[in-house]
């Protein structure tokens, strides 16, 4: 899962390459949160497994998979709510020399950081454990 999450994180760079469309804007908004959630959830589950193993308690693979599932599904629910509350739209960025409109996504960096607040909470959980 960690390698899959890292692959998704690196693949998210490809969403910035094509012209801005509704689909690419939606992938940027939801893809970052989900890919980071997979990475940090797998690290958190592995940390919890190693800490419990150190204390003499063995956590089964089913428990680890369930914990990973609930961490990832929480981020998916956050992204779905954000997309339902505020749909991805395009706004005109500027007009080029040929009179064609160049579009950009309507979300800002601040909006993306707010969508990653759950991931920031997961990262902050590591020192507590």
Automatic annotation (TrEMBL):
<protein>
    <submittedName>
        <fullName>Class C metabotropic glutamate-like protein G-protein coupled receptor-like protein</fullName>
    </submittedName>
</protein>
<dbReference type="GO" id="GO:0004930">
    <property type="term" value="F:G protein-coupled receptor activity"/>
</dbReference>
<keyword id="KW-0812">Transmembrane</keyword>
<feature type="transmembrane region" description="Helical">
    <location>
        <begin position="32"/>
        <end position="53"/>
    </location>
</feature>
<keyword id="KW-1133">Transmembrane helix</keyword>
<keyword id="KW-0325">Glycoprotein</keyword>
<dbReference type="GO" id="GO:0016020">
    <property type="term" value="C:membrane"/>
</dbReference>
<feature type="transmembrane region" description="Helical">
    <location>
        <begin position="65"/>
        <end position="85"/>
    </location>
</feature>
<keyword id="KW-0675">Receptor</keyword>
<keyword id="KW-0472">Membrane</keyword>
<dbReference type="Pfam" id="PF00003">
    <property type="entry name" value="7tm_3"/>
</dbReference>
<feature type="domain" description="G-protein coupled receptors family 3 profile">
    <location>
        <begin position="1"/>
        <end position="123"/>
    </location>
</feature>
<dbReference type="InterPro" id="IPR050726">
    <property type="entry name" value="mGluR"/>
</dbReference>
<dbReference type="InterPro" id="IPR017978">
    <property type="entry name" value="GPCR_3_C"/>
</dbReference>
């Amino acid at each position: 899962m960690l390698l899959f999450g890292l692959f998704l994180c690196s693949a998210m760079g490809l969403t910035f390459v094509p012209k801005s469309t509704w689909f690419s804007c939606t992938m940027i908004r939801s893809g970052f949160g989900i890919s980071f959630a997979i990475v940090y959830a797998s690290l958190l589950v592995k940390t919890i497994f190693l800490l419990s193993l150190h204390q003499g308690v063995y956590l089964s693979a089913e428990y680890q998979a369930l914990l990973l599932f609930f961490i990832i599904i929480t981020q998916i629910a956050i992204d779905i709510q954000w997309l339902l509350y505020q749909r991805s739209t395009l706004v005109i960025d500027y007009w080029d020399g040929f009179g064609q409109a160049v579009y950009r996504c309507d979300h800002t960096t601040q909006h993306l950081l707010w969508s990653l607040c759950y991931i920031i909470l997961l990262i902050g959980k590591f020192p507590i454990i």
